Amino acid sequence: MEWPWSAIAASSSPYSSRCFFTSPNSCLSLTRRTSLNSSIKPLRHIGFDSKHHNLITKRRVHGDSIVRRSTTSSKNAEETESSVECVGMGSDVECVYTGEGEDEEEENRSSGILSGGDGSLLEWAVLISPFFFWGTAMVAMKEVLPITGPFFVAAFRLIPAGLLLVAFAVYRGRPLPKGFDAWLSIALFALVDATCFQGFLAQGLQRTSAGLGSVIIDSQPLTVAVLASFLFGESIGIVRAGGLLLGVAGLLLLEVPSVTSDGNSFSLWGSGEWWMLLAAQSMAIGTVMVRWVSKYSDPIMATGWHMVIGGLPLLAISVINNDPVFNGSLQELSTNDIIALLYTSIFGSAVSYGVYFYSATKGSLTKLSSLTFLTPMFASIFGYLYLDETFSSLQLVGAAVTLVAIYLVNFPEGND
Length: 416
Fold this sequence. Notes:
Layout: E1 26-30, E2 43-49, E3 54-61, E4 66-73, E5 83-89, E6 92-98, H1 102-108, H2 121-148, H3 150-171, H4 180-207, H5 210-217, H6 220-232, H7 237-262, H8 272-293, H9 299-320, H10 335-360, H11 365-370, H12 374-387, H13 393-409
């Protein structure tokens, strides 16, 4: 998946138990496939705030990577309603749990596919659909890039989805960002997690296959693990350390074919794999930036605005670069090209993320996270079917090694 998403808590890292909000709502953070999710340790703490007469409950659940902090007024503790809302962007997804209903919530999460049930064919289709959309969106992007230009495609993927998310946040009554710190944090987050990530991805996709690019993008948890260790003191452990070393080896194997095939004419900036690696690093940095951003802004609003703000420089670069779409090729767009653009923006962004967030509230997050390995598979299959893309033998080995490394980096801490 080129946008692997993580639900991030805001206190010490994207995986802390501190709530994003100052209101007496509860914060539920969901983590997908980064090393930080496995660093969450079982913890339950109950306290009483005598000043505000609030009962405060914090809970960390090992394995499922759930962090929740609920603050409940003692006055209305007996009459509450529970709901979970998830939304996010880039590599970050925020789930907000309102009300207490702890036992009821756990009961609701104990059924269905993600909790060990067999599930119907429709349930499985819904569960897998986000990874299908993410993988096939890479193929759709690559197909339309030569006609519209890379930066236009990147901007088109961000701006419409961001505007929809902001509109949704307004409809839900979320507060707009206020103050210099709020807008500065969103702007910097947008620069890294939206502008750089999507720009690098589009550049790389011009020079490499959708399947190979998807594998490299999915390597970003390796960097997140290192950043978390240095910035937040997260323990890596023996298994994860081995995964990091294996991941480096896998990425090198993915790079070697492009170097050897070009021979003496090899240029680092002409390597699609290099651009994809830069995109993965941008996503990883964006992941750890969420903590800072969420200190000043509502996470849903911040997510939407960072998409819009991050897409504007890409649109400007597209105009300055005289991308084909602004140079007469707009009239040459076929119906299939327009469908590919819409598919990338709607299904590759809004729909896929929405379904993923919905599924994330219904069962085991560990099981859901494990399905993200389907994204490179779908990208590779449809890249082969529609674009005649193939992997070399060495690239196949590198892809397999990289995916194993990502699994090891996300290895449950209790088993380390």
